[in-house]
Amino acid sequence: MSTACKKLVNTVERCVDECLEGLVAVNPGLRLVEGHRVVVRADIEDAIASGKVSLISGGGSGHEPAHAGFVGKGMLSGSVAGAVFTSPPPQSILACLRAVAKKNAGGTVVIIKNYTGDRINFGLAVERAKHEGYKCDMVVVGEDCALKSSDKTAGRRGLCGTILIEKICGALAEEGRTLEDIARIAKDAVTKMGTIGLSLSPCTIPGAGASFTLGADEIELGLGIHGEAGVKRTKLVTANEAVRMMIDHMTDPNNNSRLQVKTGDKVACMINNLGGTSVLELNIIAREAILLLGRYHYVNLSGTSVLELNIIVREAILLLGRYHYVNLGGTSVLELNIIAREAILLLGRYHYVNVGGTSVLELNIIVREAILLLGRYHYVNLGGTSVLELNIIAREAILLLESRGVAVERVYCGSFTTSLEMAGVSITLLHLDDTLRNCLDAETNAPGWVRPYLPSGQRTRTTPQKMVTEDSHNIAKQQTVTDTVSADMKQQLYNMVKTAAEQLIASEEQLNGLDKESGDGDCGSTMARGAQDILSELKSKDNPLPVGNPAELAKRLGNIAEVSMGGSSGGLYSLFFTTVAGELQKEISPSAWSSALAAGVTTIRKYGGADPGDRTMLDALYPASEELSSCLKAKKSPIESFKSAVQKCEEGAKSTATMKARAGRSSYVSQDRLKNPDPGAMAVTIWLSAVLDILSK
Ligand SMILES: Nc1ncnc2c1ncn2[C@@H]1O[C@H](COP(=O)(O)OP(=O)(O)O)[C@@H](O)[C@H]1O
Ligand SMILES: O=C[C@H](O)COP(=O)(O)O
Ligand SMILES: [Mg+2]
Ligand SMILES: [Mn+2]
Q: Where in the numbering of this chain does the DhaK domain appear (predicted)?
């Protein structure tokens, strides 16, 4: 493991699997579906039998506790995880849908964040599920307030607000509401929500370096949760100024993705740790946000200076914060405002005349209570170690202790005593007897106590069980495929597939580097993952890729893209090869290859919504396809035509360096920061040139 990426994992390939195994080991209310990165409620059979609507969510990993950590009664029925920052493959999403739905009458709501990869992969799975007779609807969350301009982009990104939607849908499902009701309320809630991020440091994908660099005294506003660039960099400011910057940006009338907030509005405010913020800072940010938002509620009382007013407002809000929560909405705005006024007057009077009726001691206690009370509802409590690593450590500790014959009866995993944002862990062991065990199991309201999720009535941790479903064993069916091409061409196709895959594997770092600038840094790994599987299936003894039958070959390549890649590339290549396969069934001739390529390009445009010129892989594929077709029409030789097409492909890919991005992740990055070509377009030149190399031999 490179030192550029200092993390507590075993291997990059297995880190997500081991994280999920750790999560399930610590939480007996969860089950892993064997063969997939799918987590479901342990009591899923009962939940299905109840006929209530089931809920699933998912996406790339690296956002823990999202989403597997929100599986449980009252929230999700199941979750699907992809590789880090990479949307999961449709096959796993389908496995999750089948595991939580079993065609129950209620149906399933699928909640996703608005990313191209997730839209395509979850979209494909939902379409398949509908064909199979499942009832489902998809809620796409896009609530990012970062982007000010109205230029064409991939749409607002889904961020932490997704967890609020999961909670809302979970409560509605538990109440027995219908799929239609839940989807409608959730879609409406998405429009009433906004999120803005602020970062002090980059994140690091396991196995790769930092996603971007930020000066020691710099902060970045409006970044994404995959290390995507934000909208503005500034010098480090105070917590107070930072919160003002965030909320001002979020509510700015000139911001096209703003959330309007006005006096009298009631809001829930979620302060989310992006992973390495200390709890000390988190509480300060919570306080600042409450104070700032509270200002919207109160008007100046004549004769009071702004300074005094701010002090009073702060005290009143802290005090009232408690009433808000105790009253739980039963108090009208009118009454609340009267109470606010009374409290301000009361507190203000003490301040001005210095009577000291409320002691500093009491005030501090109230402040503390208010923060604790608010904190309990709002915080995602993380430390400087990612939750991904924490779960892996939990799994390792359990495995090791159990291998030594120690019964691990209770496991707690979370942030309990931090060292600010230090990346690191400690392990504590306590010998248990009945008294101590009962004490640990006793209920507490303390916000810091992270309790494993146990289904009602269950008191003990059981060895994690994996659930085997019919989707657990996805063995490609062996078929006898008849060759439709000559032995020479068969050998040539074998060489093409092999060289293209090898070249993609060799370019992993280069493509990841390009994707760090314009996206989330995983394009090379996603392509390499697919290429590895292509190589192993090419050389497989039992069921090798049918290189003698181009249509069947394209079908299998599409299947590999679907099963093992994930991300936008996985979904788009799977659609591409599936279309190509259909076209190649008709005939095998230079013009048939050319029409197949053109049809594949059309499918990418149809499902991805991008056009040539939008700075995507299409800017390499489309000119290549056009050139191939026009050269063949002009009666150039197939080899010359292909050479010319590859040249156009390379020129097209290079030209993306100066293009404005209007699709995919790069559409969020400001143009002055996009200096290199698009990774997806470069990937196309790599495999297409490899094909040309073999063809020219
Ligand atoms: N809507 C789209 N249509 C065509 N290609 C797209 C689209 N969105 C993204 N891409 C391509 O996908 C590449 C990124 O691939 P990948 O890293 O797998 O995606 P992500 O991590 O954003 O899911 C981009 O460089 C771009 O070429
Ligand atoms: O975490 C990542 C998202 O869930 C999916 O992103 P993607 O478009 O990169 O696959
Ligand atoms: Mg990705
Ligand atoms: Mn990417």
A: 11-449
